Amino acid sequence: MQYRQLGHAGPQVSEIGFGGWALGGQWGAQDDADSIAALHRAIDLGVNFIDTAAGYGEGRSERVIAQVAKERSEPLFIATKTPPADGPWPPSPYCAWQDRYSANYLRENIEQRLRNLQTERIDLLQLHTWTRAWNDDPQPLLVLRKLREEGKIGMIGISTPEQDQNCVIQLMRDGLVDCVQVIFNLFDQEPAAQLLPVAAETGTGVIVRVSLDEGMLTGKYTAEDRFADDDFRHQYFAGDRMQRSVDRVAQIANDIQRFGLQDYSMADLAIKFALSAVGVGSVITGIRSAEQAALNAAVSDKPAIPETLMQLLRRHNWRRGVWYSGK
Asked: What are the protein's GO molecular function terms (predicted)?
């Protein structure tokens, strides 16, 4: 496992991070025993960065991670997320921050995060979404700064809204966030235009999520595959999206074959592509089994993608817009 610094003042984190969404049960049925085994295997292989959220099974993911963290002696860097109070997701331009991220709400929610994670200090607390409507009066981030001064949290971050990832650019330039979590993958390369360069310029840490496009970029699905109603992907790949995505993945597979990269699976290439972006500290991959932990962790030590292939892969940028409203 290789390690990188998370921003100019952050810790050394594993290039491959553990994404804890599936541990909450929203990707189909998930046994806690499998989750625990996956976490232990990932840590055995050098993964020290774990990402979760309040909304992942109403704290279930956090509680499982806390259980494993108590059983390990290695230092782990655990990030979680606080969602806004009830209302539209992502927040509407007409939402007032006072209604979605008030000081009282943030304090109460973060106390719950602390209880679930069985800790006195959260390494990285991220607001789970945002709207640029609040950029000129970003009071929620000032509340987080106060909580940092009180020792409740370490780093302050925002997980970007899919519909407007660039809304965090002003916040990075204003020094209001230590870290941003963004979507960046073979299909969604827009952050390379400005967001990632600004993060590098300002020393803001970058965590990449959805590097496998919710599993599509593993290359294992066909147009006939379907997901259970309680699986997030049932909504994500609704209608003709499965067929359209499979067709695009086939084009990427052709590029891999042309370069004869026998040691790379489609998933390996997708993760390595995300790791190649400027300023990225860690790429979090959704992991729900010990086998997945081993496969994903192994990508870190694979050689870099040849520059000629990197140039070719950039043509797979897919301006498809946003397919769904929130998670």
From this structure: oxidoreductase activity
Instruction: Count structural domains, the chain.
Output: 1
Cβ neighbour number for residue 184 with a 10 Å cutoff:
26
Per-residue pLDDT reduced to its tens digit, 221-230:
999 989 888 8
Q: Is 71 inside any structural domain?
A: yes
Tell me which of 3, 56, 221, 264 is the catalytic residue: 56
Cβ pair 79, 50 in contact under 8 A = yes
Reply yes or no on whether 101 is catalytic.
Answer: no
**323 domain residue, yes or no:** no
Contact 9, 285 (CB under 8 A): no
Say if residues 179 and 127 touch (Cβ distance below 8 Å): no
In the block, tokens 């294992």 appear at: 220
**pTM across the whole model:** 0.94
10 Å Cβ neighbour count for 211?
A: 29
Domain range for 21 is 3-316
pLDDT in tens, 46-74: 999 999 999 999 999 999 999 999 999 99
Residue 83, C-beta contacts closer than 8 angstroms, at least 6 positions apart: 53, 54, 55, 89, 109, 128, 129
Does the pLDDT at position 326 exceed 60? Answer: no
Cβ atoms 81, 128 nearer than 8 A: yes
CATH of the domain at 134: 3.20.20.100
Q: Which of 289, 327, 292, 228 is nearest to 30 (CA)?
A: 289
C-alpha 49/C-alpha 76 separation (Å) is 6
Residue 158 lies in a domain: yes
Assess if residue 193 is contained within a domain: yes
Higher per-residue pLDDT: 285 or 234? 285
